[in-house]
Amino acid sequence: xxxxxxxxxxxxxxxxxxxxxxxxxxxxxxxxxxxxxxxxxxxxxxxxxxxxxxxxxxxxxxxxxxxxxxxxxxxxxxxxxxxxxxxxxxxxxxxxxxxxxxxxxxxxxxxxxxxxxxxxxxxxxxxxxxxxxxxxxxxxxxxxxxxxxxxxxxxxxxx
Length: 159
What we know:
10% strand; mainly alpha; two-stranded antiparallel ribbon; 4 strands; two-stranded antiparallel sheet; 7 helices
């Protein structure tokens, strides 16, 4: 927003503050500010995630609250879309090996994310052992749904 419109700047700041720092719905915030949903969404800026992109080094962002809540980040510079845990793991590994700041080799981030998923599955297996048979069926069905979702996302991402 330009400094020629201080009221618009203030409105944008207030909209972003309420959107990112409250649990109010978009409709509630828009109504409180006297804005239509479309105008409100036009004022919302992505939230800086505090992590550089493994691909280009620019700061990654959360495009919306749902993405933030699910730990899904996007790089506005190069378009990389990745889970926050995978990016965090990449930078932790880079700091340990001294490779900090170097661009990610193609597929390396995906392999690292795969290892993180395998670790999560391993710890989940231990937790599954403590569940009742009905709980195992419910958890297994949920995991199957997640696996199918990841497969579909992978296929769509390649297109």
